[in-house]
Write a structure and sequence with these properties.
Layout (H helix, E strand, L loop, with lengths): L1 E5 L3 E5 L4 H4 L2 E6 L2 E6 L2 E11 L4 E6 L2 E8 L1 H8 L12 E3 L4 E6 L6 E2 L4 E7 L2 E6 L4 E6 L6 E2 L4 E5 L1
Antiparallel strand pairs: 1-2, 1-7, 3-4, 4-5, 5-6, 6-7, 8-15, 9-11, 9-14, 10-13, 11-12, 13-15
């Protein structure tokens, strides 16, 4: 089972075992060009651009471009768990990876973060851990203070 989003608007479920999909007649003409027959209609599909890391592809079908983002079973599971954009450079929040005590906050509201920037120092099991940004963002709010005890998964900083 796959989910496809077309032009950032339409969502479709794709089941390769489904008899409706099996009724399509798809013939590869070249590496990026296909001929498709569906319901007695002919289509020419050309792959204009593909980004395998983002699982996106732009396809020109009979002169019209369609941007398709495909999600497989693993992507859907990660999305359900709330970690759908783990590979994305943009982050929306920073949560505590473990319980501990906030020793220092290295950022302020309005600061711009890049991947790898030190965000705060968290003491856990008598060790000081420097939490670093896992992506890019701008600090929108800081939901903790120096000296606060935090739990694993607790929201620490919101980004925009």
């Amino acid at each position: 089972m796959y989910k496809a989003k077309v032009n950032q608007q339409f969502d479709f479920d794709i089941d390769l075992q489904n008899e409706n999909f099996a009724a399509w007649d798809i013939i590869a003409i070249s590496e990026d060009r296909f001929h498709i027959l569906k319901n007695n209609r002919s289509y020419t599909a050309i792959i204009v651009h593909k980004n395998l890391a983002a699982k996106s592809i732009t396809i020109n079908i009979n002169g019209h471009n369609y941007m398709v983002i495909l999600k497989d079973k693993m992507d859907l599971l990660l999305e359900k768990m709330g970690i759908a954009h783990a590979a994305s450079n943009k982050i929306n929040q920073i949560k505590a990876p473990m319980p501990g005590l906030v020793l220092d906050i290295k950022v302020a509201v309005g600061d711009s973060l890049q991947k790898g920037d030190a965000v705060l120092v968290l003491e856990a099991m008598k060790m000081e851990n420097v939490l670093k940004a896992q992506g890019e963002g701008t600090v929108k709010s800081i939901d903790i203070q120096k000296g606060d005890a935090v739990e694993k998964g607790q929201l620490l900083i919101c980004l925009e």
